[in-house]
Amino acid sequence: MSEAFLSEPFRPDQAHPTQAHPDHIHELIGIGFGPSNLALAIALEERQSGLDAVFLEAKPRFAWHPGMLLKGTDMQVSFLKDLVSQRNPTSGFSFLSYLHDKGRLERFINRKTFFPSRVEFNDYLDWAAGRLGGICAYDQRVEAIEPVRAGAGVSHLRIHSRDGAGRATVRQARQIVLAPGGQPHWPELFAPHRSDARLSHSNDFTARVLPKLTPGERIAVIGGGQSACEIFATLAADPACPRVDLILRGPALKPADDSPFVNEIFEPAHTDLVHALPPEARAQHLREFAGTNYAVTDLDLLQHIYGLLYEQEVEGAARLRMMAETQPVGLQTVGQGAGLHLTLDAQGRRFGLDYDRIILCTGYRRELGQTLLSGLADWQTGAAPDRDYRLPMKPGFAPTVHVQGYSEPTHGLADTLLSVLALRSAEIAASVELARADRRIAAE
Ligand SMILES: Cc1cc2nc3c(=O)[nH]c(=O)nc-3n(C[C@H](O)[C@H](O)[C@H](O)COP(=O)(O)OP(=O)(O)OC[C@H]3O[C@@H](n4cnc5c(N)ncnc54)[C@H](O)[C@@H]3O)c2cc1C
């Protein structure tokens, strides 16, 4: 199949690629424009596939986990695992190209680090998104995916979105790539209190907590992973001097294993190995290496927190506490604006503590059934995405649905991270192009 056959005029009959046109059917709509779909947009651009693609993003502009863009936090992967370098080291979308463009390449080299700050990496991603020239419509939260019937089957999909002012838009596509990231997890005990301003998830830390801190607040930070530790360290340094308890289920804060042999599981080639394993062996593999990513913290941050607690002991202060082997088992809210009474259980011993604020660092959930795909439930086979991240659908369903970040059980621990983006995006781009070519051949 020649490239010429696959090509079509780029984004036809539209004044602007992201502008909705009621009758137009896009070849591809990407839902969510975080690093995963940004990497895909770049892969499509670099493959010069001429594919009529548009991406829809809920946020008003590009931002990578803005609620946790904290001063002093660093990347947990090498900058070489950027959007492109592992696939195309000569790409103009690499982190090194970004540094060069910004005039900081030499000074970055002088820093002798593989790990830029998260603030800088966010700036890199924003720069890369900006270079794509308006392929993404921001402020478009997708609310539903509707199958468009053609006889007994489905020919394409209608994507319903809404902007911040409440205006609804409908676009159509023959293929979609769903990459909405994880949903902040609110454990059952706390879920009924979501709208209470005294409770928040780490995902909203910079918006809901930092600007609202008052001197001497009593704060419970719940969780024992990287986000909990970053928030604990940030609050410890806050001039408002809140009193902070770090409450974790496990016996101790544990370091993330990023040693070289273990780190090989994040290599893109490893995806094939994991995918080829029988289900039980895969599950065992995920358990074996969970300590690379879940409920663990970078060693330098652990050492910093240990130092903070030690200094406090020397000073005879008690503003910061770590409560290990402790879990929340009850929550009483004492009216709006008053305190929160948290019942805790430590090794079978129940006790209560009063707080002004609770911050949940309880991670994210990624369950396909709870995403926008519920609108396509009747057409799904229930099988996991295939090796190319395409969701198996029932006969008669012509559109393709690819997912990014929802295949950890079958593709391995790198699936929710940045490590495989450069390669995964090219695999999905190729699969999307192949589906387009197959459809055209079938129509001839
Ligand atoms: C604080 C933090 C730090 C991290 N640091 C690292 C790291 O250093 N290294 C690493 O490998 N991984 C890290 N991760 C893991 C993280 O999952 C990946 O870095 C990366 O963000 C995954 O990209 P994504 O595009 O799949 O998801 P996301 O980054 O979550 O992006 C999804 C996008 O979809 C949008 N969206 C969601 N729903 C809709 C909708 N209905 N309509 C339209 N748009 C929607 C969201 O607004 C968001 O912009 C970190 C995660 C967090 C929370």
From TrEMBL:
Pathways per UniProt: Siderophore biosynthesis
GO terms (BP aspect): intracellular iron ion homeostasis
Keywords carried by this UniProt record: FAD, Flavoprotein, NADP, Oxidoreductase, Plasmid
Pfam families named among the record's database cross-references: Lys_Orn_oxgnase
Zinc-finger among keywords: no
Keyword Plastid: no
Record-annotated membrane-spanning stretches: none
Cofactor: FAD
Enzyme Commission code(s) on record: 1.13.12.-
Domain of life, per lineage: Bacteria
Region named Disordered: 1-20
Molecular functions (GO terms): oxidoreductase activity
Family as reported in the entry's similarity comment: Belongs to the lysine N(6)-hydroxylase/L-ornithine N(5)-oxygenase family.
Protein name: L-ornithine N5-oxygenase
Organism name: Paracoccus aminophilus JCM 7686
